[in-house]
Design brief:
Jelly Rolls, seven-stranded mixed β-sheet, 2 helices, two-stranded antiparallel ribbon, about 5% helix, mainly beta
């Protein structure tokens, strides 16, 4: 069932802004539409977003909107989580993630987990590491073909620097459809 009311943006309390719904969550425990955009979900219309932190000039909606933006950046270093909570269960056949790091050499790891309408525990579907190098590899683009039915929650956990843990997580874009 589609909800026709404008979405609400949540950041450390309730604030009404634009259309993206989100809310700040606690830190994880240690341990432009064109033909190319066809088939991607418009998250502003169908989901609420939770994020552990975000820099004021790099909000999460900049990475999740269908139009190109400048991406999301955490406001603090260390592991970060982005959680998409769908209003109704959705089927996902593909995902695309894009990361960019031109300033510092580091090895990043990200994990995608999902849980469905059945109420079962979250299941890991992707775990990926990438070595960024300012003199060489500065952009990571990952495209996945998936077969996920009745998804209610999709979570992206980013460990931005496996060596020191001091880097700031970033996400240029995350699309799904």
């Amino acid at each position: 069932m589609q909800n026709d009311r404008p979405a609400t943006l949540f950041v450390a309390g309730t604030v009404r802004m634009e259309r993206m719904r989100k809310k700040r969550i606690g830190r994880p425990p240690h341990s432009y539409r064109n033909e190319a955009d066809e088939g991607w979900l418009d998250l502003e219309e169908i989901a609420t977003i939770e994020v552990t932190s975000e820099a004021a000039d790099y909000p999460i909606e900049s990475a999740l909107r269908l139009q190109d933006g400048h991406g999301w950046r955490a406001s603090e270093s260390g592991e970060q989580q982005i959680r998409i909570i769908f209003d109704e269960p959705v089927a996902l056949q593909r995902m695309q993630l894009r990361f960019h790091e031109a300033e510092r050499e580091r090895t990043q790891e990200f994990t995608i987990r999902w849980s469905g309408a059945s109420g079962a525990a979250a299941r890991e579907t992707v775990r990926q590491q990438w070595n960024f190098s300012p003199g060489g590899s500065t952009t990571e683009i990952e495209e996945y073909v998936v077969d996920l039915e009745a998804v209610l929650v999709l979570e992206l956990a980013i460990r931005p620097d496996l060596a020191s843990g001091e880097a700031t997580a970033t996400l240029a874009s995350w699309r799904m459809g």
